[in-house]
Amino acid sequence: MFTSARRTSTYVREYSVPIAGLGLLAIVAAYVATFGGPVFLLVLEASVPTTIGLGHVWYGLRTRTDEETTRRADIVTVGSITCGAMVALFCAWCIYLLSVRMDFSGGLTQPVISALSTGMAFGGLLGHTYVEFTHYYRESERLSRAVDASMDGIAVVVDDEHAYVNDAYASLYGVHDAATIEGTEWAERYTNAAQATIDREVHPALAERNYWRGTLIGQRADGTTFPQDVTVSALEHGYVVVARDITEQRDREQRIQVLNRVLRHNLRNAATVIKGHASLISEKQPALEREHVRPILEETTDLIETADKARGVERTLERNGDADLIDATAAVRSVVDRARAAYPDARVLSRTDESGARATTPTVDGSVVDALNELVDNAVEHNSAADEAGTDGPTVEVAVRAVDYDGELRLEFTVADDGDGIPETERRAVLDGAETQLEHGSGLGLWLVNWIVQNGGGDLRFADRPDGGTVVTLSFPYECAAGPRPALMETP
Question: Where exactly are the transmembrane stretches of this chain (predicted)?
Answer without folding.
Answer: 12-33, 39-61, 73-99
